[in-house]
Design a protein that fits this description.
The complex is a heterotrimer of chains A (264), B (343) and C (307).
Chain A (H helix, E strand, L loop, with lengths): L2 E8 L8 E8 L4 E5 L6 H8 L7 E6 L2 E2 L5 H7 E4 L11 H6 L14 H14 L14 H14 L4 E5 L7 H18 L2 E5 L3 H7 L2 E5 L5 E5 H4 L2 H8 L2 E7 L2 E7 L9
Helix pairs in contact in A: 4-5
Chain B lengths: L6 H23 L8 H5 L10 H34 L12 H14 L11 H25 L3 H25 L2 H11 L8 H20 L1 H7 L3 H6 L4 H23 L5 H13 L3 H25 L8 H26 L2
Helix pairs in contact in B: 1-3, 1-13, 3-8, 3-11, 3-12, 3-13, 4-5, 4-6, 4-7, 5-6, 5-11, 8-11, 8-13, 12-13, 12-14, 13-14
Chain C lengths: L1 H25 L15 E3 L2 H9 L6 E4 L7 H5 L1 E2 L8 H6 L4 E5 L2 H12 L4 E4 L4 H14 L3 H23 L4 E8 L4 E2 L5 H8 L2 E3 L13 H6 L4 E5 L6 H12 L6 H4 L3 E4 L1 H5 L5 H12 L16
Parallel strand pairs in C: 1-2, 1-4, 2-3, 4-5, 6-8, 6-9, 9-10
Antiparallel strand pairs in C: 6-7
Classes of the chains: A alpha/beta (264), B mainly alpha (343), C alpha/beta (307).
């Protein structure tokens, strides 16, 4: 088992429980989407998986060892995290940012070896961002920046990749491009991908398994085609959808009350 | 991938900056209110005191001053780099978290109590400034910790609270000490480079260089830390531990500098900023080069301070402010434009 | 964690040893002075010490003074080595002195340390009471190789002061308020040398014991202190008449004080009183005159001692 979660409970201080008794497991090379309405706890779950938060009860195991047993450095060699893109205070270049992924592998003198440089070069190639390498991060567009952060996660060469809404502010082209890249990582490199997403259709298209979190703490975990049904979506999101099968995947079109697609 | 930092490139840059510093130090030691001929200096001290005044002035006055100025400048610039990284704010400077008010309190108390013992040749004012500066930093860390983890917001708040409280105490004490003591205190705090014992210079150099070396060891981690605690942890850096180590070392070398020369302003703010503009934000490069540039900067400022209104002299803090102020405004204007273009 | 700590301790130990060795090497033995090797090039860093040196008849041997040294007239013509607060170490060394006299407060102490390291003969003196003045004169006399002149000067000053004291003892004590500055209002307290001068002239401080020497005093205290005489030391020596007018105006608001009612407000020249030096008798006389004008008619002229 690559990631194993058992009876996970979590609440922020002085608030009601956000996650109640969540259990699921992923083998190496899985693609999981975590979906749900705002405030359901998706990002919280991701932070728990990456070791930033401590669960109230329950356990998380990475490669059959408890999460707490890993040191920060060891964990960084297992899990890479891509959060929503942002601009740092100081003007690091894209190459410098991607190189920071090699931190857990650097020796005492903290300079990059040839192996490190190779990992960085590979990451640039995989994301097709080599042409940005010397540009300061804040001279790039949002989409390009996000690609750089993904390149950084790839350069970290971890078996697990956690992403928090990696395509929220990006255009269609970048959205599909990034998910294609993630799928490729899963298929070719056997990485386990866990992506928090707002976009049901991206989840439907790309992920093999889906964890649907509801605002009241209930959840459904399983293969995507079992979890994502119009009925369940209406219960969790409060929105009617029209499902259509395209290729091997089902797509869901949200129908608003007053929109032109409404049947009323 | 063209300007990646390699050990060789870094060593070359450091060597260049070091050469610049040595040249500046040498030239400045030849400048002063009295004319000193280099040839006379090499003739040696002479049997009677006062026989070779060129030697006496050069060795007893000029050289110690230049060395002290370099040490203070290096410590303050290095500390500024680190604090700007920890607080993720290019406007941070070494005195921001309690050091200045702590040192001031220590000095006032030393003056009031009329302390006269000397430790390893350091004056009681210097020792008290050093001890109180460190104690205040420790207090700020403690309060920040108790208030809310070791996040930078709680640190900053603790710093503000401690500064306010100490300032009030200082005002109280200032109102009851007599004018000569008051003048001594203010003068000491204004930032003065004076001629010190070689043993003190040696000891301080060891402390400061060791501190800077320690900070250099965590420079790559500081790079990562500037992306925030969450990002740092995901990349394998323990944000709490690194922040603590960086803060402790930076405060230590700042306290040594304050003990040596009082509060010399602007160096810790302007030098890291300017060097970052030229050399980029990679701390493995930024730290050593800032330290060397900071050293040269204070040496030059002190030389100006002691010659421009000869035979009187200005406190070096006046010159660093006069030069540093406008430079800082220019940088601020430039930096603000960038902030405006951020999301 | 263990290894870096061990390295740190080793470095510190090594450094301490080096420091100790350097300091031992720097230590120079003291020189004894006698008539044969009496200092011929004296530098004084303080106005009152300069006055003492000149009063001992050593004026010709003075090669440099601080900016503020203006008494006697000859002192003004000597070359300057910086100010009282910031002596210029380089200039002092360049003057090749064989005796430097200075004070003991922080700034001058630092300079003294540097000069001592350069091998110069430095005499640091604390002059903050009349007794310390006598000690200082004796020490300067000894250091300059003329101890008998020092003793003579001390005896002279003592005699004149004792005269003033015995004269004033016949009259009752007058309550005196001594003003150091008016904004904010600061007075001279009871543990100052100013108070010593007040008392020997037949006066008593209107303000009781305070923690610090020159405290700032509130309006209430002033109104109830019952001062019969107000003495204000002038700021600088110019326009004393103007300052007198301004002072009378300032004090008119405290109309209930006997000093104001009887118009006994005096602004006096600060140099003879606040500069604790050989002109002390002259200053004490001026102060005594303010308090008991009927006993002390004419202020004594300071005799310029020729040598």
């Amino acid at each position: 088992m690559n990631i194993e979660v058992k009876n996970l409970c979590f609440a922020y201080k002085a608030q009601s429980e956000i996650l109640k008794n969540i259990s699921f497991g992923l083998g190496q090379g899985s693609f999981l989407s975590i979906a749900g309405p705002n405030g359901a706890g998706k990002t919280t779950l991701l932070n728990l998986l990456s070791g930033l938060l401590k669960p109230m009860s329950g356990s998380i195991k990475i490669d059959d060892a408890p999460l707490q047993s890993y040191s920060i450095k060891q964990l960084a060699k297992k899990i890479a995290v891509v959060r929503q893109e942002f601009v740092p205070v100081f003007e690091f270049s894209a190459a410098q940012v991607v190189s920071m992924a090699r931190t857990p592998y650097l020796g005492a003198l903290a300079f990059e070896t040839d192996a490190d440089k190779e990992a960085v070069a590979d990451a640039f190639e995989m994301t097709d961002t080599a042409r940005f390498a010397d540009r300061p991060l804040n001279h790039l567009s949002g989409g390009e920046r996000q690609l750089i952060f993904i390149a950084r996660a790839l350069a970290q060469q971890t078996p697990i990749l956690l992403l928090d809404e990696p395509t929220s502010f990006l255009d269609m082209g970048h959205q599909v491009g990034i998910y294609d890249l993630l799928k490729k990582m899963q298929i070719e490199n056997q990485k386990t991908i866990v992506a928090v997403t707002h976009d049901i259709n991206l989840a439907a298209q790309y992920s093999d398994a889906t964890l649907l979190l509801a605002a009241d703490g209930t959840y459904k975990f399983g293969p995507t085609r079992d979890v994502l049904t119009t009925e369940r979506i209406e219960n969790v999101f409060g929105v009617k959808t029209f499902a259509a099968q395209v290729g091997q995947s089902r797509f869901f079109f949200p129908l608003g009350k007053y929109g032109k697609g409404s049947r009323a | 991938m063209t300007d990646q930092l390699t050990p060789r490139r870094l060593i070359i840059k450091i060597a260049l900056c070091l050469a610049l510093l040595v040249i500046v130090m040498f030239v400045c030691s030849l400048v002063g209110t009295q004319k000193v001929s280099l040839r006379a200096v090499f003739a040696g001290p002479g049997d009677e005191p006062g026989q070779n005044i060129d030697y006496d002035i050069f060795v007893r006055v000029r050289i110690p001053r230049v060395i002290l100025a370099a040490l203070v400048g290096a410590a303050l610039a290095a500390s500024g780099v680190v604090l700007q990284a920890i607080l993720r704010n290019p406007l941070a400077e070494p005195y921001i978290l309690g050091i200045s008010s702590g040192a001031a309190l220590g000095v006032i108390m030393a003056v009031m109590l009329g302390l006269s013992w000397r430790f390893l040749g350091g004056s009681p004012l210097a020792i008290m400034a050093f001890v109180f500066a460190l104690g205040t930093v420790w207090l700020v860390w403690l309060i920040g910790h108790l208030a809310g983890g070791s996040g930078i917001t709680s640190l900053l708040l603790a710093g503000v609270v401690v500064n306010a409280f100490f300032s009030a105490v200082i005002m109280l004490l200032t109102s009851i000490i007599d004018s000569q003591q008051l003048r001594s205190t203010i003068f000491w705090l204004m930032g003065n480079i004076t001629e010190k014992d070689f043993s003190i210079l040696f000891l301080s150099a060891i402390f400061i260089i060791a501190g800077i070396a320690g900070l250099f060891a965590i420079c790559q981690k500081l790079n990562v830390l500037t992306f925030g605690r969450q990002e740092a942890q995901s990349l394998g850096v323990n944000p709490r531990a690194i922040t603590l180590v960086a803060f402790a070392l930076a405060s230590f070398i700042t306290a040594v500098a304050v003990g040596l020369s009082g509060l010399v302003g602007f160096v810790g703010l302007v030098v890291p900023h300017s060097v970052r503009l030229v050399f980029g934000p990679d701390h493995r490069q930024l730290l050593p080069t800032s330290a060397l540039v900071g050293a040269a900067f204070v040496v030059v400022c002190d030389t100006i301070a002691r010659t421009i209104i000869a035979p009187a002299q200005l406190p070096v803090g006046v010159i660093t402010a006069i030069i540093g102020g406008p430079v800082f405004l220019l940088l601020l204007a430039r930096y603000s434009k960038k902030v405006g273009s951020l999301r | 964690m263990k290894k870096p700590l061990a390295i740190l301790v080793a470095v510190f130990a090594f450094a301490s040893v080096i420091v100790f060795v350097i300091r031992q090497a720097d230590h120079k033995p003291a020189k004894t002075t006698n008539q044969a090797n009496a200092p011929q090039r004296i530098v004084s860093l303080s106005p009152n010490l300069t006055e003492i040196v000149f009063a001992l008849g050593l004026g010709e041997r003075v090669v440099a003074v601080s900016n503020e040294c203006d008494w006697p007239i000859e002192a003004k013509t000597k070359s300057k080595v910086g100010s009282f607060w910031q002596p210029n170490t380089e200039a002092i060394i360049a003057a090749k002195p064989d005796l430097v006299v200075c004070e003991t407060f922080a700034q001058q102490k630092e300079v003294a340390e540097t000069l001592k390291r350069a091998g110069l003969n430095v005499l640091s003196l604390r002059v903050e009471s009349i007794e310390e003045l006598f000690t200082a004169i004796a020490k300067i006399g000894q250091a300059a190789g003329c101890p008998e002149k020092g003793e003579q000067l001390v005896a002279d000053i003592k005699k004149q002061i004792d005269q003033i004291r015995s004269k004033s003892s016949s009259a009752g004590k007058v309550k005196v308020l001594w003003i150091m500055q008016t904004e904010p209002l600061r007075v001279a307290g009871v543990n100052t040398f100013v108070n010593e001068i007040i008392e020997l002239g037949g006066g008593q401080n209107a303000i009781g014991p305070t923690i610090d020497q020159y405290p700032s005093v509130g309006t209430e205290e002033i109104l109830t202190c019952g001062a019969e005489v107000i003495i204000q030391s002038a700021m600088g020596t110019e326009d004393i008449a103007k300052q007198q007018v301004a002072a009378e105006k300032f004090w008119s608001r405290y109309a209930n004080l006997p000093a104001v009612k009887d118009k006994r407000i005096y602004v006096i020249d600060p140099d003879t009183v606040l500069r604790l030096g050989p002109r002390l008798p002259e200053g004490a006389q001026a102060v005594a005159k303010c308090m008991h004008p009927e006993l002390f008619a004419q202020p004594k002229e300071t005799k310029q001692k020729n040598d």
